[in-house]
Amino acid sequence: MQEEKTGRTSHTLTLKSRKEIFLNEVEELIRFDEAAVLCRTSEGLLTVEGEGLRVTGFHATEGTLSLSGDISGLFYESGKKKPAIGLFGRAR
Fold first, then answer.
1. What is the pLDDT along the chain (92 residues), one digit of tens a residue?
2. Domains identified in the chain, total number
C-alpha cells in the first residue's frame, strides 16, 4: 500500500462475498446496531447497511475495523454539502 505524507497507509475497504468487511484508517466507531454501522475514516464518514451486522474486531490504535453480516450498502459522506453517493455512484 502506498503511504501518504502522514506516514499512514491509504484507506482501504475489502468486501468478501457481501458477508465480511475489513477496513483500515478508521478514526472512530461512532455507532452500530444490527442494521447499520457508522464510522469515521480518513476518507469521511462511512455507513455500512445490512442485516445481522456484527462488529467482529475494532482496534482503535491500529485504525482497523472488521464487520460481518448481510451487507446491502456502503455510503461515504465527506462532510461537504453534497448528496450522499452510494458505492456504485447512485445518490441516496
1. 444 445 567 899 999 999 999 999 999 999 999 999 999 999 999 999 999 999 999 999 999 999 999 999 999 997 554 555 566 665 55
2. 1
Residue at 20 is within a domain: yes
Whether 53 and 32 have beta carbons less than 8 Å apart is answered as yes
Q: C-alpha 47: how far from its chain's center?
A: 6
> 74 is in which domain, residue-wise?
13-78
Least Cα distance to 18 among 51, 40, 58, 42 occurs for 51
Domain containing 73 — which CATH number? Answer: 2.60.40.2000
Number of other residues whose CB lies within 10 A of the CB of residue 75: 18
